[in-house]
Design goal:
Layout lengths: L3 H6 L3 H51 L8 E5 L6 E5 H4 L27 H7 L27 E4 L46 E5 L14 E2 L29 E5 L4 E4 L27
Parallel strand pairs: 3-5
Antiparallel strand pairs: 1-2, 3-4, 4-6, 6-7
């Protein structure tokens, strides 16, 4: 026979439903906060990776008579297959601790350097997933497929074509910090660290690429202006082209600068005008030939 104590200790169905409803409401209230906290953590890791890349670039310059590293160059492939194009990730590999994850952002799930050649990378490059040895480790060494491995962090090369109205075509000036060596057939050339006018206002690395997949699938690691004929013009805004990385962290993106600091910026607030351009070695690059 049930006692009064037994009856008072039991929950009714209505009481259980009320408790469940309260828990559901609390969970719904907490979910956005938890999601924001997770994203904040991922953004912090991304910022730390970019800071490490800036340090790597500074160390490279110290070892290279002040010349800044190329964003792209030609090296002999590690597998002995001959000369091939490679990226800043291979060039800075040793300086960045030989860790592929340093070139990634944990908020980015599609463009991941540390996973080697993914199915998306293979599709963009027309690479057969079968018959090529160890595609999952295509990183950190020169090879014919490394340029196709997209990464979550891109290198700044906004104004990548030298101005076309320089008096001397052979001496055309490229404004981006990490150029490409003319000795290997590129036309940008390289720049020295001491040429930077304001290191705290020169972007070196940032979230994402520049939506280049439709034009150059092997440049998905490169932040650059893709409007034909306007590559070196003022007014570069990543939001005006297919560049989802520019709003990766709650509408903003992380950027590391030539002085080593990292900050989060809205693409609309990054200057690129005649007075100030954060994509150019000379901050007043768009102010005329005398500024270059």
């Amino acid at each position: 026979m049930r006692t009064m104590r037994d009856q008072s200790a039991a929950f009714t169905l209505i009481e259980l439903l009320v408790v469940i409803a309260i828990i559901a409401i609390l969970a719904a209230l907490l979910m956005p906060s938890l999601a924001k906290a997770r994203e904040s953590g991922r953004a912090s890791v991304c910022a730390s990776n970019q800071r490490q890349l800036s340090v790597a670039a500074i160390l490279y310059a110290l070892d290279s008579s002040d010349w800044m590293n190329p964003l792209q160059d030609r090296h002999n492939a590690a597998d002995g297959s001959g000369s091939c194009e490679t990226t800043f990730r291979v060039i800075l590999w040793n300086y960045a601790g030989k860790m592929p994850g340093v070139f990634d952002c944990p908020s980015e799930k599609r463009a991941v350097y540390a996973d080697g050649i993914s199915e998306a990378d293979a599709l963009a490059g027309g690479i057969a997933m079968s018959g090529v040895a160890d595609l999952s480790h295509i990183y950190g060494a020169p090879g014919p497929y490394e340029v196709w491995n997209a990464s979550g962090i891109g290198v700044a090369g906004g104004h990548w074509i030298p101005v076309d109205n320089d008096p001397d075509p052979e001496a055309r000036v490229c404004s981006m910090p990490f150029g490409r060596p003319k000795a290997e057939g590129y036309y940008e050339g390289l720049r020295k660290h001491t040429e930077i006018s304001v290191p705290a206002k020169l972007i070196w690395f940032g979230d994402g690429g520049s939506g280049t997949a439709a034009l150059w699938g092997d440049d998905s690691w490169w932040i650059k202006r893709v409007s034909p004929g306007e590559e070196d013009d003022a007014g570069f805004n990543r939001l005006l082209q297919d560049d989802y990385g520019s709003s990766r962290h709650v509408g903003k993106a992380n950027y590391s600068f030539a002085d080593g600091h990292v900050a989060r910026w809205d693409a609309n607030d990054i200057p690129c005008n005649e007075k100030e351009c954060w994509w150019s070695v000379k901050i007043n690059f768009h102010g005329g030939l005398s500024a270059r």
